[in-house]
Amino acid sequence: MHNYFQQYKFRGDYRVRAVFSTLMQTTVNQLAGDVVLTIPVTASTMVTRGFNQVTGWLTDGLNQVDGLATLVQEKGVAQSQKARQDRMETPQPFKLVMGTERLRQQRVILVDDIYTTGRTMRHAADLIIENGAKSVTGLTLAR
Question: What values do phi and psi take at 43, rounded to 5?
C-alpha cells in the first residue's frame, strides 16, 4: 500500500487510480448514503499534483465544486509529515461550500484516502453534522 500511495499520491501518477477505483465506487454505493463528499486538497496541491487523489477513485480527480473546501490555499507541513500530537492539534481546515439544505437530515458518506489519527475525518464530519446532516459515515482506502 505504501508503494501504491507513493506512486499515486506523491509522484502524481493518475493512471494508477484505476487499481482501486472500482472497489471504492462499489463500496460507496453499498453504503447507500444520500450525499457523497470527499476530502478536498488545497489549491496549491491541485496545481502541483494536478488531481485530488480521492475524487480520482470516484469521478474526475477534481475537487468537488459543491461540497467541502480547504480554508487555506497552500499547505504548510503535509499531514504525512506531522507527528501524531501535531495532527491532533490541527485546527478546523475545512469550510462548507454547499447549501446546508442539501445536508439537512441526510446520510453523508465522507471519503478520504488514508485514516491515520482520524483528525481529518473528524474535522470534516463535525462541520457536516453542525450543518444539519443526520449522520456521517467515513470511508478510507487505508488505515
Answer: -60, -40
Element spanning 20, H or E: helix 18-31
pLDDT at site 72: 86
Q: Nearest Cα to 71, choosing from 4, 36, 123?
A: 123
Q: pLDDT tens digits, residue range 11-58? A: 999 999 999 999 999 999 999 999 999 999 999 999 999 999 999 999
In the numeric block, which cell numbers belong to residue 3?
Answer: 508503494
Cβ 120 vs Cβ 39: under 8 Å:
yes
Q: Which helix (H) or strand (E) holds 26?
A: helix 18-31
Which amino acid type is present at position 1?
M
Confidence (pTM): 0.89
Other CB atoms within 10 Å distance of the CB of residue 64:
20
- Residues 6 or more apart whose CB falls under 8 angstroms from that of 25 comprise 57, 58
- At 117, the amino acid letter reads T
